[in-house]
Amino acid sequence: DGRISPKYLTLQMLKALGHAKYIHYGEMDEAQHYIPSRGFDESSMRLALNSALDHRQTRFAFVDEAHHLTHTKSVQLRANVLQSIKCLCAVDRTLVLVGGYELAYRGMFDSAHFAGRLHVVDLPPYEDTSEDMDVWVEISKRMGRHLPLANPKLLVNEAEWLRHATNGSVGLLEKLLFECKIDSQTTSSRIDRRMLLAHAPPPYENSVIRK
User: Fold this and answer.
1) Distance between alpha carbon 146 and the CA centroid of its chain, in Å?
2) Which of 3, 54, 172, 200 could link 165 by a cystine bridge, Cβ 3.0 to 4.6 Å?
3) What is the DSSP letter of 149?
4) Alpha-carbon distance 192 to 149, whole Å?
């Protein structure tokens, strides 16, 4: 859809870079600034983006949760996304996609622009092994120090269940605990097992993430 069309993404990147020509476009005070009537076609914007990245000596561009960019069956939409992020790549520039496994495995090799220059680093989730559980318990212990827990050892005691509920992902664990923290602040209560269960991903979502 329009939110991830090449032109929209290019404009968003130009605004994020603070490009003088595009930063006020679409803002409430747009009429107070001189905005040339020309230069808003896709080619001009891509040239401006490349110049802006070079001028600011941007060497790394990070895209988080990149797998959401490919949650579509539309081949054309995926192609548009690839065309958009291609603008961020250059000989001396690196694009880092975090969580972009779908984009890497499904789409990147469809584009000759990326062929031979793609490095996939797989960081697997924590599994049910003694070594992984030792680290997971330590992570749980550290996170628990910054939360209003009903029992100081709550996260350690529930470490195995929490690993299963979050598919061994530290990011999902942080999300779950953040929601619990907000809940505890709004209800003036401490985090207990009941609250953890209430904010855990439902079984269907859990299986989809695992897959």
Assistant:
1) 24
2) 200
3) B
4) 6
Question: pLDDT band for position 15 (50/70/90)?
Answer: confident
- Give pLDDT tens digits for 97-138: 887 666 666 656 666 666 556 777 777 899 999 999 999 999
User: Is pLDDT of 167 > 60?
Assistant: yes
Alpha-carbon dihedral sign for residues 108, 10, 60, 58: positive
SS3 72: coil
DSSP states along 161-195: HHHHHTTT-HHHHHHHHHHHHHHHHHHT--B-HHH
Q: Is the pTM of this model over 0.85?
A: no
Q: Determine which helix (DSSP H) or strand (DSSP E) holds 95, and give its type and residue range.
A: strand 94-97
In the chain, alpha helices (H): 6-16, 42-55, 75-86, 101-102, 130-144, 154-157, 159-165, 170-187, 193-199, 203-210
68: which 2 tokens?
Answer: 């959401």
What distances in angstroms separate CA 89 from CA 4, 53, 125, one per listed residue? 18, 10, 29
> What 3-state DSSP class applies to 63?
strand
d(Cα 57, Cα 139) in Å, to the nearest integer?
36
